[in-house]
Amino acid sequence: MKRILLSALGGFVVAVSSFGQNSAVYKADILFNDEKKVLEAEEIITPALTNPKTTKLAMAFNIAGNVQSTKLASEIEKASRKEACDTTLFINSLNKAVEYFTKSHFYDVKPNEKGKVKSVYVANNHKMISQMLDYYAYAAGFLNARKDYDGAYDCFEKAIAMPKNPIFSQTETDSIYKSKEEDYAKWSYFATMIAYKKNDWDAVLKNVNPSLKDTMSVEDGYTMKLSALQHKKNIEGWILFSKEAIKIVPGNITFCQNILSYYDENKLVKEAQETAEEITKTAPQSKMAHYAQGCVYLNTLREYTKARSAFKRALELDPSFLQANFNMGVCYINEIVSKKDQYCTDTRKPQFKIDKEKILDYYRKACPYFEKVRELTPNSPANWGSYLKNIYYNLELKDKEKELDAAINRNQ
Fold first, then answer.
1. For residues 389 and 238, what is the distance between their CA atoms, to the nearest angstrom?
2. Taking a C-beta distance cutoff of 8 angstroms, is the pair 131, 4 a contact?
3. Which of 91, 144, 231, 347 ranks highest by number of CB atoms within 10 Å?
4. Residues 231-273: tens digit of each pLDDT
């Protein structure tokens, strides 16, 4: 990188026949190219950039850009030798270099008074900006390490925007983003993270979408986006992206629970059912999609047979799916409760024994699921203790009930 950068700095020598009103520009060019007096060249060229008498603006800004590039190269060389880098100088020089090369390009392609374009510095300006595409990301890394999060965010945003510099054609811009998609996704993710920590929800929504392309950060990306949409009270968008998150990140139960809780709290039965059906159709191999469907039938619609069918499918995809095992057991217990008025309670009637056997059958079927929950969370009796105790008691499994009591006492 260093050789490429430095080799581009001496790409032009202007033949000077007279100085006149652009004398400062010519003098700075001589100092930079012939004598390599960078600081002297900078001291002369800087005021020329704003002097109304300066007409060689494309040349002036190109020289100014090259001066800043040389200072950048010096800091990069230090970093390559693992020496301390002047972060402030690096960022200031980078900001100025990008500004100056961009302005040089603007004046270089601007038609003259006769409507003609006589470009001289297009190639050099383009080359130098191209070499700086990643530099703002480096700067962001420096600042982030120093916990200057505002500065880091600003640099990440600039890194993400660099391919849109007017020096590049639209085709070049698209090509840069495509060829370095992973890098831009990561930088977007870092920018989003900083904005999320600051509760800057507009900035989160501005940066988050590209980060969803990074497989390593997609889950965090959806979490931050959904949080931002909630804080912005964009419920329609939140529901839309909650559905998407369930399909894209099938292992995250929170996305599923949040949207189901929203439907349940707002008594949106129809919407809950439609969402559950939609998710299972578009993501048939997602355990979370089937789990969501099961939760809707269990908690919202109270259709226990359909709920068990959905949880069964989720468990076929992941037999150790804790919540699906738990809710499968709950289905059987809740159905007993829902039918309590249908069972005969008169012990003298023959129907009593028939109904009692039906009830015990529900307990028998629920038992292995709660035992699985216990197996998966042995140190959390709150997940399984009361359910298993009730099941063992009703099934008259006294030895298991005794062992269970001992296990619960050990975990208290």
1. 40
2. yes
3. 91
4. 999 999 999 999 899 888 877 888 888 988 898 888 888 888 8
